[in-house]
Specification:
81% of the residues lie in helices and 0% in strands. The chain is mainly alpha-helical and 107 residues long. It has one domain. Helix 2 runs antiparallel to helix 4 and helix 2 runs parallel beside helix 5. The longest helix has 27 residues.
Length: 107
């Protein structure tokens, strides 16, 4: 399911003519938010965490794609683009995980 969702994001970004970084940023930020939300759920929902955290999100988000995109940008001399993507992904991913955790802990 996560792989299919990932493919849909990639295809949508490609149809819009956007850079591959956009798809990677979307899946990693959404994945960070959802994981943050999942870990903040009440303990009665703990049985669903592995299914979604490992199964769905594990195949939806991508660290390997993230790092490969940075290597490819560095190879063509786009050091600033690679650095901005790396820092932006970390900062926005952190904020998304925080927001997800805060949202999940609201009862």
């Amino acid at each position: 399911m996560g792989t299919a969702l990932r493919w849909a994001v990639d295809a949508g970004v490609d149809q819009l003519g956007w850079h591959v970084f956009v798809a990677l940023l979307i899946v990693n930020v959404v994945g960070s938010f959802v994981l943050g939300w999942l870990v903040a759920l009440p303990t009665s929902a703990l049985h669903i965490q592995p299914l979604f955290a490992i199964g769905l999100l594990g195949s939806f988000t991508t660290f390997s794609g993230y790092t490969l995109a940075m290597v490819e940008e560095m190879d063509v001399g786009s050091v600033n683009a690679a650095a901005a993507f790396a820092l932006g992904s970390i900062i926005v991913g952190y904020a998304a995980a925080r927001l997800g955790r805060a949202t999940g802990s609201v009862r």
